[in-house]
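How a chain folds remains the central question behind the approach discussed here. The record that follows shows the chain in one-letter code together with its fold in token form:
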Amino acid sequence: MRARALAGLGRFEEAAALLRGDDATQAQLRAELLWSGKQWPALSASCRATNASAQAKEGGLTKDEEQGLMRCAVAMSLAGDESGLAAVRGKFGVALSKGAMKDAFLAVSVKPSAPDLIVLAAQLGDTKAFKAFAQKAAP
């Protein structure tokens, strides 16, 4: 509750700091707070920590996992975290290239310009808008 109050005041990094536990729910809320505050470097670091022990599953990614990894990839790109993005590509690239957001992942992982990523970041916040974007981007 305190984290949400701090986020409401625009103090996103402080809010996220209150959610440092390993609990998946806290990690997701922390990512959402940092995303809302456009705190790309902090979100990139949070994604690195969360993804460090994660493994790609043989059955593919769930919709939520795919969207979470895409948010991480966009944040890493906006933060200039090339090594973090390379880690996501290496660990999850095959799974992401088979998912519904494959075109968006390709666009993010080939170093698009910052204005393109800002548009993608805004669209990722709204799943319907992102799906429309992905359909338009598909060849």
Observations:
- The two ends are 44 Å apart (CA to CA).
